[in-house]
Amino acid sequence: MAQPSHARTSCALRIGLRVVVFLFGFGLITVASAEPGPLSIPRVHRAPKLSDFLNGTPREAEAVVTTFWQFDPHDGEPISQPTTAYLSYDSENLYVGWICKDDPAKIHARVAPRKQIDLDDRVTINIDTFQDHKHAYWFDVNPYGIQYDGRTTDGIGDDPTWEGLWYSEGRITDFGYVVLETIPFRTLRFPAGSKQVWNICLARAIQRNSEFSMWPFISHKKLPQFVGQFAPMEINDDISPGRNMQFIPYAMYSHDSYLDPAAGPQKEIEKQLGLDAKFVIHDALTLDAALNPDFSEIGTDDPKVQVNQRFEVVFPERRPFFLENASIFVMPEQLFFSRRIVNPQYGAKLTGSLGRWSIGALASDDRAPGQVLAQGQVGHGDRAIDGIFRVEREFGHQSHVGLFLGGTKFNDTSNKVASLDLRYVTKDNWTLAGQATATQSDSADSHSSGPGYYLRLRKADNHLSFTNTYTDRSAAMASTLGYINRTDIRRLENYTSYLWKPPAGHSIMSYGPNLDGTIIYDHKGTLQNWWIEPGFTVGLPRLTWLSLLFERSYELYKAQGFDANGVAASLTTSWFKWLDLSTGFAHGAEPNYYPAGGITPFLGTGTNASATVTLHPQSHLRLDEIYYYTRLATSTDSVLPDSAPRGVIFTNHLIRSKFNYQFTPSYSFNAILDYNTLLPNNALVSSTYSKQADTTLLFTYLPHPGTAFYAGYANTFQNVDFNAITAPNFALTRLPGTSTDRQIFVKFNYLLRF
């Protein structure tokens, strides 16, 4: 559970340390503390078992933490339910046993896939082995023993893409629940030495209270320091992560039957073998190398509305090679977005930290640019070469300066990017972030280059949040491997919010206003956009939030100015154990960005609604329903030719139904049904009538990261009818009754660790 700003949490420590009571018999060290010295962790010769904590079996010496303080909802108040953590270690592992008192009928948890316990009750240990008070690993476990891990970095936030090999067990009891975490030292990165002094945080989430409590006491007042508030932990022994080499061979087989627009039905069989390797260098750097690497991803992206979007809609990265330690490449401006590398065949990556230095380097090819070119075109079958490098040097108090270099080359076209960025944290926790970027793009007959600048000032505590941001991008600024959705802008944005938090016992846990204001000019001084969005948010128990928003805006698009206003409301809640709900509704003026031929863009009335409903009929079964409704219609403000009709411009429905049955933490079955329909009025909008239905069935065996077996089936149906006489054009039908892509696949990978 890392950064608290992500509804997940972590830990901390109060003022004063009530130290150490040594109990006769088994030597338990009890900590209940503030301003602590190092928490000394005893060594044991017999590894603890979950049954020991269930049955009260005598154990060897342990460090015991019993005092936890709330981070949310009430900074510094005691935890609402008794919680005890027991820490010990042996030559190979760190052990954390938890006894969490509670009414078992009120515990919020399920047997879920790994890393899908965000809304569950859970416990965590956060460990800063780097001793830099900035980076930490986190290891979450819910009452059923389901894991969620990752890394967190102060000022950046959580990176759940990190995968560690560790072990956990959990059991719900008549007095609450019990959890045991076993974390191998070889899973962590730390320098060898005669003893280890790390910084840690222990935490518990009690979701029905929207509560996150921690040891030691961590306060909103000291944010963005989160890891910086951890308490020291001492292991008085010469432990070592040892050799750490990982090899993950994999094999994949797929049989694909698809409908080619020109040639009709086709079949393709793909067999793929490869090897991913990982080497830890000097207990700090990780080298990922691969032979025919496993860049594939299992599963599908959740739907997003893509109709009538002015800017590109992007989906998050899912491929394992690009995910691990991806936070090293995070900067204020997103100059690297790994999904730009579409179809690589090989790749290598080096990431890690050396003292106050952090480095990251990645090199890869990409076959996609050559594949999209038709046979006979120059560059068909060729590939792009991509590379990025980043180095970061920490200084002062949680501050750093960074350098980024990136580039891509495909035949005679290339793009190069260089950037310097700064993050400076003052003693009273104001954060200043800045970045200066230079780019250069070349082809056979053109050359362009342009700078970009970014500056942000931020301050946040338990009540007030303030962010002021300035972005300046020249018209020629370009990052082919990044995500820069707009150039030729000078943008100033301010966001301010304030939350009142009534004392414990009130039905309302927090409430307050927020205000977002933005203005954008181009470099000629022409106003491009402005908007102002006042809103109000109310927080209730059981992870329930209600938000209301009003927007007034102006937008210049294709030399036309559009004045608009609208309202929006959203509700998220986990009020019932068996139900998670998130809904949103927005209504107001909205441009038609892609009108039919002969019509200029015009203002209409948009209605957007969404709902995500998750049902848990029992602890192993999860049902998800996702629905997006988007509608645009003409209004009295629509400027149209006299011959153009008025009425609905388009309606878009996106529906996803997901069924997951988790037999055990390792075995699961998933079924996903998708339906996407776009109903346009082609007299008003340049979109194509389309209906598509997708079915995906997937069986998964995943005992731990790196080892997995997948067997799946996928089929896509569209509203088309293939006719060889009219090819390559499809005739549109009313229903999605034609299978256009059917696939059966099997994939297996196995972790070998030395």
Textual characterization of the structure:
- It is a single chain.
- The chain is an all-beta fold and 754 residues long.
- The protein has a domain at 4-235: Immunoglobulin-like, CATH 2.60.40.
- Helices cover 2% and strands 54% of the residues.
- It has a 24-stranded antiparallel barrel.
- The longest helix is centred in the N-terminal third of the chain and has 6 residues, at 50-55.
- The protein is globular.
- The two termini are 29 Å apart.
Pick out its properties.
nine-stranded mixed β-sheet, mainly beta, 24-stranded antiparallel beta barrel, 754 residues
Give the C-level CATH assignment of the domain at 4-235. Answer: Mainly Beta
Sheet with most strands: 24 strands, antiparallel, barrel
Our estimate of the beta-strand percent is over 45%
In whole angstroms, the N-to-C terminal distance is 29 Å
- Percent helix range: under 10%
The CATH architecture category of the domain at 4-235 equals Sandwich
Topology:
Elements: E1 29-31, E2 39-40, H1 50-55, E3 63-65, E4 69-72, E5 83-89, E6 93-101, E7 122-128, E8 135-141, E9 147-153, E10 157-159, E11 167-173, E12 176-184, E13 196-206, E14 211-215, E15 231-235, E16 245-260, E17 264-281, E18 285-291, H2 320-323, E19 347-354, E20 357-366, H3 368-371, E21 384-395, E22 399-410, E23 413-425, E24 431-443, E25 446-460, E26 464-473, E27 489-498, E28 510-521, E29 527-540, E30 544-557, E31 560-576, E32 579-592, E33 602-618, E34 621-634, E35 648-662, E36 667-680, E37 690-704, E38 707-718, E39 720-721, E40 731-732, E41 738-749, E42 752-753
Parallel strand pairs: 1-3, 2-15
Antiparallel strand pairs: 3-5, 4-14, 5-6, 6-12, 7-8, 7-13, 8-9, 9-10, 11-12, 13-14, 13-15, 16-17, 16-41, 16-42, 17-18, 18-19, 19-20, 20-21, 21-22, 22-23, 23-24, 24-25, 25-26, 26-27, 27-28, 28-29, 29-30, 30-31, 31-32, 32-33, 33-34, 34-35, 35-36, 36-37, 37-38, 38-41, 39-40
